[in-house]
UniProtKB/TrEMBL annotation:
InterPro entries: VPS16 (IPR016534), Vps16_C (IPR006925), Vps16_C_sf (IPR038132). Pfam families: Vps16_C. One of its GO terms (biological process) is intracellular protein transport. It comes from Rotaria socialis. Residues 17-224 form the Vps16 C-terminal domain. GO terms for cellular component: endosome; HOPS complex; lysosomal membrane. The lineage of its organism: Eukaryota, Metazoa, Spiralia, Gnathifera, Rotifera. GO terms for molecular function: actin binding. It comes from the Eukaryota. This is Vps16 C-terminal domain-containing protein.
Length: 257
């Protein structure tokens, strides 16, 4: 049956070379419908990749090659780890499935597929949050030089409705040298730390941050007044022709701290 199908496809291509891509897609469909074993799936995908390359569609061919590599790696991992089901998962979902209990295997898979640091850190923090692995997330955050900063750590905690965990990443005793000062008021506001958010926004003279705090936080009357007064002072500062001199002076002061 396989030989007959291949001969039929060869005849179609001989009559009309433009049929290559349509036949290639049929191999992909076969992979998801009748090709039940990994070797069979590999055959279908390799056939599809070959046809796409012949049709000068190298981009799709490369994607198919990546998928072929992935199903082989998934099969190897299932045999090695026993209690995980990875078939049919994307690369990201595969990494998330094994990150918590098999982090070394996840790291190896990441290297095999050349995932850059930023993307892998994103996958990791989302995996920890989805699995409620808060202790691991906190420890991961203590690693030096996060390529994505620390606000995403806060965001994944908030999405899981864990403000308590999100606030841990604003602990200045742990993260003081890592936190982005320009983003501090926004991060404080996200976790409902209104006083700290307002103080940071005033220090930065950031009108944008003050607006964000108003939108995000449940403010007391006193804090609403502080924001209004801060906006007035910032407006006066912006209207001052010497503001650029002030900026240079303030930058110098921060450098000396």
């Amino acid at each position: 049956e396989e030989l007959e199908r291949n001969n039929f496809h060869a005849e179609l291509i001989k009559k009309n070379p433009d049929e290559r891509e349509r036949i290639a897609y049929s191999h992909i469909i076969q992979r998801f419908t009748t090709a039940l074993t990994i070797p069979d799936q590999k055959v279908e995908l390799n056939s599809a990749s070959k046809l796409f390359r012949e049709a000068k569609n190298d981009t799709v061919a490369q994607l198919i090659d990546e998928e072929t590599r992935l199903i082989i790696k998934q099969d190897e991992l299932e045999k090695k780890l026993y209690n995980v089901q990875l078939k049919g998962l994307s690369l990201v979902d595969t990494l998330e499935a094994i990150l918590i209990n098999y982090e070394k295997d996840a790291d190896t898979l990441r290297k095999d597929f050349n995932l850059n640091d930023k993307r892998y850190w994103w996958i990791k923090i989302q995996a920890y949050a989805k699995k409620n692995a808060w202790a691991q997330l906190l420890e991961f955050g203590k690693k030096p030089a996060s390529p994505i900063g620390y606000e995403p750590f806060i965001d994944v905690c908030i999405r899981s409705q864990r403000l308590d965990e999100a606030r841990r990443f604003l602990d200045r005793s742990i993260y003081s040298s890592k936190l982005d000062e320009e983003r501090l008021p926004f991060m404080f506001a996200k976790v409902q730390m209104a006083d700290e958010a307002i103080n940071s926004a005033i220090k930065l003279k950031s009108m944008e941050a003050l607006h964000f705090i108003e939108a995000k936080c449940q403010l007391s009357e006193a804090n609403s007044t502080r924001i209004r007064q801060a906006r007035e002072k910032i407006q006066e500062y912006d209207d001052n022709p010497l503001k650029n001199v002030f900026k240079i002076f303030n930058r110098g002061n921060r450098a000396d701290e």
